[in-house]
Amino acid sequence: MSNPQERAEVLLRQLVPDDASRSVGPDRQVTANFSSGSRAISSYERIHGQVSQDPIDWSTVETVATKQLTDVLYAKAEGIAKVTINRPEVRNAFRPETVEQMSTCMADARDDPDIGVVILTGTGTEAFCSGGDQSVRGPGGYVGADTIPRLNVLDLQMQMRRLPKPVIAMVAGYAVGGGHILHLVADLTIAADNAVFGQTGPKVGSFDAGYGSTAMARIIGQKKAREMWFLARLYSAQQALDMGLVNSVVPLAELENETVKWCREILRNSPTALRLLKSALNAAEDGHAGLQQLGGDATMLFYHSAEGNEGRQAYMEKRRPDFSKFKRLP
Ligand SMILES: CC(C)(COP(=O)(O)OP(=O)(O)OC[C@H]1O[C@@H](n2cnc3c(N)ncnc32)[C@H](O)[C@@H]1OP(=O)(O)O)[C@@H](O)C(=O)NCCC(=O)NCCSC(=O)CCC(=O)c1ccccc1C(=O)O
């Protein structure tokens, strides 16, 4: 084929159906005259047609669901919120509803100004959490009453990570699979001496390639993380302590007392210092998401300052801000 014009016309004949008008413009662009203007028609458009431009008919949502807690217990005392996975009959395995309810409690604990620290635990002494409930696992994820397959525990992990208050996992019994990851993403873990830790995913056809593997490697090191995932063994509380996976191991009978003691100690300290420390430790590992958290905290602090308020005040009073009174510190 000799010249570009000829090549364009052949291409156009292949792409554009006969009933669409064709032209090769003076600038030698291959075009077709559809309602959206003159432009090239892709094979995708030939098959799928054009995207509808009909006016949209919105349905207003008046209320969003408030959640009845069926799978989780939630309690508060002395500035501490306690979220307890309450499905002991399945070793506190979580289904989508469990995760949704945990998420609702975490959001409440975040928003409540009287809460300074959150404990995450499971009912009974047999298990903290045995991960995703395998009986409701379908091809696309875990399926709850709404029949939508979900992996919503990943959202919960993010939420715990971003919660601007310390989250402490209080672990008795098994913390395995997705349950192990929940303790991993908590800021601290206090374990009972009967605690057992491990990733079971590869045994049941699952894995967590997010925090569950990468954050784990930051905590216990690459070799140990690969061992934990590739062999899917279980580890005792003492072994977990030795590899830096938990902060403390105490006799089962003392688990709650000891955890509350840690909480009370934390509550004596500056909440803003703790918030910024959590953000900073996350920022070093969480990329843009971590920086956004730290950045949001910086903005919050700036809003408390006279300098930040001078800007807002001047805007409201329709005058120029006077930033000259604020020193540029080294
Ligand atoms: C936890 C055990 C080691 C406890 O053993 P044992 O004390 O002997 O009790 P059992 O008799 O085995 O269990 C009692 C009872 O509970 C049922 N059960 C226990 N765990 C589960 C479970 N996870 N799902 C459903 N049911 C469970 C058990 O069947 C018994 O019922 P009966 O009717 O009485 O027989 C042991 O139970 C065990 O190994 N459990 C399985 C642990 C497991 O493999 N968990 C799933 C790992 S995969 C996962 O968690 C994925 C999570 C997830 O959503 C995800 C998705 C995408 C990316 C990341 C993730 C993420 O991991 O977060």
TrEMBL record:
GO molecular function, one term: 1,4-dihydroxy-2-naphthoyl-CoA synthase activity
UniProt keyword Transmembrane helix, yes or no: no
Glycoprotein in keyword set: no
Record's GO cellular component terms: cytosol
EC number from the UniProt entry: 4.1.3.36
Catalytic reaction equation(s): 2-succinylbenzoyl-CoA + H(+) = 1,4-dihydroxy-2-naphthoyl-CoA + H2O
UniProt KW keywords: Lyase
A GO BP annotation: menaquinone biosynthetic process
One Pfam family this sequence matches: ECH_1
UniProt-listed NCBIfam families: menB (TIGR01929), PRK07396.1 (NF005637)
UniProt record similarity statement: Belongs to the enoyl-CoA hydratase/isomerase family.
Protein name: 1,4-dihydroxy-2-naphthoyl-CoA synthase
Source species: Apatococcus lobatus
